[in-house]
Amino acid sequence: MAAKKTITTRAENYSDWYLDIVQVAELADYSAVKGCMIIMPYGYSIWENFQKVLDKMIKDTGHKNAYFPLFIPKSFLTKEAQHVDGFAKECAVVTHHRLKATPDGVIVDPEAKLSEELIVRPTSETIIYDTYAKWINSWRDLPLLINQWANVVRWEMRTRPFLRTTEFLWQEGHTAHATYDDAEEEARKMLAVYESFCRDYLATPVIPGKKSESEKFAGAMHTYSIESMMQDGKALQAGTSHNLGQNFAKAFEVKYTGKDGKQEYVWQTSWGVSTRMIGQLIMTHSDDKGLVLPPNIAPIKVVVVPIWKDEGSKENVMKFCENVVAEMSAAVDSVQLDSRDYLSMGERLYEWEKKGVPVRIEIGQRDIDSGNAVVVRRDTSEKKIVPVAELTEYVAKLLTEIQSGLYAAAEKRLRDNSHVIDNYDEFKKQLEKDIPGFIHAHWCGNAKCEELIKDETKASTRCIPFDVVKEKGACIKCGESSDQRIIFAKAY
């Protein structure tokens, strides 16, 4: 990806602005493989922080990590009809196991055709539940709580870095339980883990709720999601959790013998979040200057930038800054010294701004002489002169303030752009606005109305919020009776 020095403004073109942020912040690059992205070191360091935090949260709820094959026999996908129908158009298929060199170049060896085609993992329910049928025999084997960190492939026609790519990274949890209630508790509990992660680390408010029948995961009994609002008023599904019921258990004969000696099918769940969350992070907080990162997830929380006018002052300033970094690192995580001398001061400052580092500290000889440092917060660009003796304590408090401030701003945006609407004409007009936002409207539950609304407005049902208040009303489309509102929005 060629270096880009300017960023398209959000007002000018939001889509181009997003792509520019990915580029100037050095998060990802385009790949020679169409539809796939290269996650660059800085972008991957954000994903590593996601992994570190979420992995602990998942393990704290009793789950263990494992790894299952990338390739899935085609016959496995045919065992659960809804599941194969949901993913059939997105599957990459391996048909041969060998190449052959010819005078005209390398070809697929026609004699190396597989006896059964293999599907490159679009999701792992089938390969995992085939294994669970061997691992689970008794009630003593339950619950079985497994998570894996992996890559998946879903063939996409239109791609956008992080938000939708042919290959992406994720974690997927797969659990088996003795009862429906246990599975339902698990599905809701893991969605709450994702909600907490978004709130406490990504500074992003989300709305947890239940998906409609047409929007639920292929093969699931119930699908739950967390929905977040981007700065352009569109929704992004940040994570999902599914109560799979016994559909896959029956397809793969996953049974257990209960305490009463009777054999029963297990109840299963699956749940996951992906690198799509990095796209969410970009679009929730960033501005026209570049990326903005919440301190709790930022790979670099604080950068100290030495400023010198000549070689004579350079050594003294560098040594002073090294001491500042050493002292601050004892109390604040992820403090970095920018010791590069091959870039101008302006180039160094701009790089940290576009990469979204929450706090920048600038120190020159004049600052050393006065006993002060210049502290710049990325979210507001506010500068403050702070005594060096108070620097560590001030920065620690500032990071907490930035984290809470970013969440408050995102929460206000969600609140200000959520609308309760009961008239279909008003509904359509709202969705035509520059910031359409979330619409809370009555819906009869009929998939036909849902489909017509999507065709006419490009808005889909996002979720029925868990905290929705039951109330009588009329469907926004057909006027039939409804007892609760559902969220409609245009979405990524």
Strands of the widest sheet, in order across it, are 3-9-10-16-13-12-11-24-27-23-22
Number of helices: 14
Number of strands: 27
| Quaternary assembly | single chain
Estimate percent helicity: 25-40%
Structural class: alpha+beta
Uncertain segments:
none
The CATH architecture category of the largest domain equals 2-Layer Sandwich
Domain module count: 3
Beta content comes to: 25-35%
CATH superfamily of the largest domain: Bira Bifunctional Protein, Domain 2
Q: Give the overall shape, derived from the CA principal axes.
A: globular
User: What's the N-to-C terminus distance?
Assistant: 23 Å
Main β sheet profile? 11 strands, mixed
The CATH class label of the largest domain is: Alpha Beta
Report on this model:
The protein is an alpha+beta fold and 492 residues long. The protein has three domains: 14-285, BirA Bifunctional Protein, domain 2 (2-Layer Sandwich); 302-398, Anticodon-binding domain (Rossmann fold, 3-Layer(aba) Sandwich), CATH 3.40.50; 419-489, Translation Initiation Factor IF3 (2-Layer Sandwich), CATH 3.30.110.30. The protein has 14 helices and 27 strands. The strands form seven sheets. The protein has an eleven-stranded mixed sheet, sandwiched between helices. Helix 2 (41-60) crosses helix 6 (180-200). It starts with 13 loop residues before the first helix and ends with a strand. The model has no long low-confidence stretch (mean pLDDT 96).
